[in-house]
Specification:
With 158 residues, the protein is an alpha+beta fold. 41% of the residues lie in helices and 27% in strands.
Amino acid sequence: MNFVNLSVDTNQLPKVEEVTLLPIDKNYLKVLRIRWVIAMLVVAITLSFFIYFIPFLQPIFIILIAAASLLVLATLSYILQIKSFHTKKYALRERDIIYKAGWLVEKTKTCPFNRIQNSSVSSGPIERRYGLAKLILYTTGNVLRCLFPSLLISEDAW
């Protein structure tokens, strides 16, 4: 038996760049905003707790610095969240699923269906309110874990 390992013409391979990607559900932006509000409330309450109970944090200039820092943190995280939402896209093809995300560092993940060994669908209370779910696909050997956050409406994901 002779071993044959022919070279592949890369021009014959399908191009991921040519695939039309669909944006994820707009309700996911609402979920992200609700999570943002909850996170900022937790940070603000924690900060207020420390300022109230620790005497050396009570001078007005420290309170102003803390408030300004919180405002900058909240604004930056909100802007980054919106920017990242608009870059998340996916495509469901005959033999694979593609997920693209990232505005600073762009990543494209392709999960061929014949490599998937396990899948899971999960949704928290906020996602369920908007009919969203998170799809996680585990490929052979768990080398690649494809995470598709809230891109499918729950009925499609199940």
